[in-house]
Design brief:
Blueprint lengths: L9 E3 L1 H9 L5 H6 L2 E4 H9 L15 E4 L13 H13 L3 E3 L3 H9 L4 E2 L1 H10 L7 H9 L6 H10 L3
Parallel strand pairs: 1-2, 1-4, 2-3, 4-5
Length: 163
């Protein structure tokens, strides 16, 4: 007799949380993935920016689970602390997906064999699942808030979203 099937978690770095919170779509993560695991370092980084009224408190969301995490020796030392512990938690938990936006962190995650997506990938998946009607206004809002999205990446995201 076997127990319940364990679904591998989705692990997030700080930037996708901040980006999605900034456009009032943080709760999309629960709709798309259920539970989200974050390392304590990512929670601390998010909280440091929580003075911004756009960022809702993470501890008020029971679907965000905070884990004490140490850095895995396989993770490159050149990454910032949040990225390093997010990738470490993903390795330890055998995550099915890592939410990470920064280029160096994404490259390291790929080298470690982790599946990744970022803020734009979350928006595209939300559009495909009809959780948002379109992504263009959210991309515009992200840029207005200081996020850089190259014209090529923007065009690709809109094409993937069917816009």
């Amino acid at each position: 007799m076997s127990g319940p099937v364990r679904v591998a978690p989705v692990v997030s770095n700080t930037t996708p949380l901040i980006t999605l919170a900034g456009i009032s779509l943080l709760d999309l993560l629960q709709a798309l993935y259920g539970e989200i695991w974050i390392p304590d370092e990512v929670f601390a980084e998010y909280q440091a920016g929580a003075a911004n009224p756009l960022y809702p408190p993470l501890d008020a969301r029971p679907w965000i689970v905070i884990h004490k995490t140490s850095i895995n020796p396989l993770v490159p030392r050149a990454l910032d602390a949040g990225e390093a512990v997010a990738l470490s938690l993903a390795l330890t938990a055998q995550a099915r997906l890592v939410l990470i936006d920064e280029h160096a962190g994404r490259a390291a995650a790929r080298r470690l064999g982790l599946s990744i997506t970022g803020s734009l990938g979350v928006l595209i998946e939300a559009k495909q699942r009809q959780l948002v009607p379109e992504i263009r206004p959210y991309l515009d809002q992200m840029v207005t808030q200081g996020r850089y999205i190259s014209p090529k990446v923007r065009q690709q995201a809109l094409r993937l979203a069917g816009e």
